[in-house]
Design a protein that fits this description.
- This protein has seven helices and four strands.
- By secondary structure, the protein is an alpha/beta fold.
- The protein has a domain of 118 residues: Barnase, Chain D (2-Layer Sandwich).
- It has a four-stranded parallel beta sheet, sandwiched between helices.
- The longest helix has 20 residues.
- The protein is globular, with a radius of gyration of 21 Å.
- The protein starts with 10 loop residues before the first strand and ends with a helix.
- Belongs to the barstar family.
- It comes from Tepidimonas ignava.
Length: 178
């Protein structure tokens, strides 16, 4: 039988990349590891994120709703509860909004990197996978029910050439079209 996550270091925080949540959950089950999942798509700020993680990871109620308390809950509290086989953690749709900027995202991921280091010292695998959500403006209710379609709704047929030209990184296509 193939060893799941064999190409992934045992203590790492990385982008989810080619993995799916189902694949990671199955890998955790096969390895006998805890599977921790948090969908952060509805979060708008740091407090929302901490609340969602606390709820979805089923952390103890004394979690102080700050990054230090999150670290403590994922390390000392779990460590004191007995021997651990390992962890596969997924943070899906971390917001990329002005209220949760790049610095805040890095602080959150740093906590999980520190948790991975904590478990590495104890020879317990802790793999954390994350994805970012795309910032999008909320759509007003009156636009959703408008009779007139939006301009983007009118785009029905887009040629492959137009799609390739739509990327600012496809300089060759832009130059050939000029």
């Amino acid at each position: 039988m193939e060893q799941p996550l064999r190409n992934v270091r045992p203590n790492i925080v990385q982008s989810i990349r080619a993995f799916t949540v189902k694949d990671l959950q199955a890998a955790a089950e096969t390895l006998g590891h805890h599977f921790l999942y948090a969908n952060l798509a509805t979060a708008l700020n740091k407090q929302d994120i901490l609340e969602l993680i606390s709820t979805q990871f089923q952390l103890p109620p004394h979690n102080g709703k700050n990054l230090d308390a999150l670290y403590d809950c994922l390390t000392d509290t779990v460590y004191k509860s007995g021997p651990q086989t390992g962890f596969v953690c997924v943070l899906e749709h971390i917001p990329t909004s002005p209220k949760f900027d790049k610095e805040a995202r890095e602080q959150l991921l740093d906590v999980f990197r520190d948790v991975a280091d904590f478990w590495a010292e104890r020879k317990v695998p802790f793999r954390c996978f994350y994805s970012f959500s795309v910032a999008r403006a909320p759509r007003p209710a009156d636009l959703e029910q408008a009779d007139e379609p939006l301009l983007t709704d009118k785009l029905v047929d887009v040629s492959p050439q137009a799609l390739r030209m739509s990327s600012p990184f496809n300089a060759g296509y832009w130059l050939s079209a000029a």
